């Protein structure tokens, strides 16, 4: 049986194989839930991954030339990790799963911000700092894309 987990990453990172990443999943007790309780635990895991991705993309980053880099668009990858994947506790009720590589055939879906929401967050980061951008993203829903839509998503990002 697989563990549905959520990989925080970026569209740029998806252009190459994902290796040595960590994903968020409900812990063993959460994975044993059923019905709405299970769906709630899954949703919370995705939200945690989304917050981690927002934090990572809005951390002050500098390129090798010393010019501040534009934030890369965040993506949450819903992934079915092998049950044998190593885990460690992230916080009560949730684990971090270490993945040596992500087998793209095991990806269930991708979750991205709406264009307008992303643009607003980038502008807020420039004007008011990373926390304002992260708060804006945290207050919005992510759009769902089927795993078969990756090429389209990467093409739209150009």
TrEMBL record:
Pfam name, any one:
DUF6912
Q: What is this protein called?
A: Uncharacterized protein
Its source organism is: Brevibacterium linens
């Amino acid at each position: 049986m697989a563990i549905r987990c959520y990989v925080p990453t970026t569209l740029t990172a998806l252009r190459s194989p994902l290796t040595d990443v960590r994903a968020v999943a409900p812990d063993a007790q959460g994975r044993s839930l059923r019905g709405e309780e299970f769906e709630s635990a899954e949703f919370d895991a995705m939200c945690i991954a989304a917050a981690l991705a927002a934090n990572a993309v809005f951390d002050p980053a500098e390129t090798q030339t010393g010019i501040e880099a534009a934030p890369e668009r965040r993506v949450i990858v819903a992934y079915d990790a092998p049950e044998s994947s190593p885990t460690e506790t992230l916080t009560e009720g949730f684990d971090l799963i270490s993945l040596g590589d992500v087998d793209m055939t095991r990806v269930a879906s991708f979750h991205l911000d709406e264009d307008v929401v992303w643009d607003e967050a980038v502008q807020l980061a420039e004007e008011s700092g990373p926390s304002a951008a992260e708060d804006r993203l945290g207050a919005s829903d992510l759009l769902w894309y089927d795993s078969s839509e990756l090429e389209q998503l990467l093409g739209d990002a150009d």
